[in-house]
Amino acid sequence: REIVTTGVAVDDLRKDKRLGGAVCSLSPVYHNFGSQMAGTVCTMEFTIANEGNQSLHIRAVEVRPGTSCDLEAGEVVPAGESITRTLTLRVASEGFDSHFGGVLLVVNDPSKPTQELRVVAEVE
């Protein structure tokens, strides 16, 4: 049997946690594009809101295969503000199967330093 583990390096957020820090709210966290033909390009918008009292820093943006996103590492969301970005899923599977994609964010939110948006399409 194969075991796979994943690790994410994050900032030392102990001080930020005591001070309140940034609070990342990702919406939605899941989206189903429904039934799609292989080769279809599906697009959706998502929002990252900072509900904290310090700037939210996007440290890393990792996309799953077949997924692209216009969010870039290094972007900053000021306290109390939000940004909207676009995610695209290219449905590559053929046959009656599900095609999964998504984006993983590493942020400076002391309570939840990783955030993930998952998407799926049912392939016709």
Highlighted features:
elongated, 124 residues, 5% helix, four-stranded antiparallel sheet
Task: Describe the protein.
- The structure is a single chain.
- By secondary structure, the protein is mainly beta.
- Helix content is 5%, strand content 52%.
- It contains one helix and nine strands.
- The strands form two sheets. A five-stranded mixed beta sheet has the order 2-9-8-4-6, with no helix packed on it. The chain has a four-stranded antiparallel beta sheet with strand order 1-3-7-5, with no helix packed on it.
- A hairpin with a 6-residue loop joins strand 8 and strand 9 (114-123).
- It is elongated, with a radius of gyration of 16 Å.
- 21% of the residues are buried.
Low-confidence stretches: none
Number of helical segments? 1
Overall geometry? elongated
Biggest beta-sheet profile: 5 strands, mixed
Strand content: over 45%
How does the helix and strand content classify structurally?
A: mainly beta
Average of per-residue pLDDT values: 88
Largest sheet, order of strands side by side?
A: 2-9-8-4-6
Radius of gyration (Å): 16 Å
End-to-end CA span: 32 Å
Order of helices and strands: HEEEEEEEEE
Task: Kindly state the percentage of residues in helix.
Answer: under 10%
Total DSSP E strands: 9
Oligomer: single chain
Quick structural overview:
By secondary structure, the chain is mostly beta strands. The protein has one helix at 14-19, and strands spanning 24-27, 30-36, 41-50, 56-63, 67-69, 76-77, 82-90, 97-107, 114-123.
